[in-house]
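Lecture notes, unit on protein representations.

Consider one protein chain, 176 amino acids long.
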Amino acid sequence: MPENKVRKYFKLIEAWAWCDICEDMIALNINKEEIIDGLQMGIYTKEYKHANPNPDLDDTDDVSGQEHTIYIYINDSYEITGVKTFFGESMSTQDIGAETVKAGGEVRIPVIVKDVPPMAVQLGMLSKEQFKVLKICDGMNTIEEVASTAQKSVEETEEMMEQLRKKGLVKVIRRT
């Protein structure tokens, strides 16, 4: 899998993100104002529906020609910190951490149970980092993926999840 890339310009960024379904890089031009509006002291998520324009017609297992979605997580430095690809409106729970479950491991998926406005940071109810992590807990990421996307250690993220759980904002779903 090639590395995601970003070119930054004055008013926009050019982002290239790897799509596991197309097995190709997807190019997007994203207006910086759109990112700034979406960041709200956290992380910006770009949703882009597309289909592979050149699927392998000889391969009956190639479903990349069907419409699917790519989610790109962008931080406040306009860098891609995570990418998710899936069919439909959202990822199914069975797809999240499927490799870990197959290997006999446990998957922990944090899910927001109570929406928190950005004002909670200004009022001191949450730190900016907690709010950022909370925005990544969209039900499509394991705790390890949340840590990677937020650019934090797993231990630091687990500690933050416990704090957010105690505040009644997050629930961690466990799958084996």
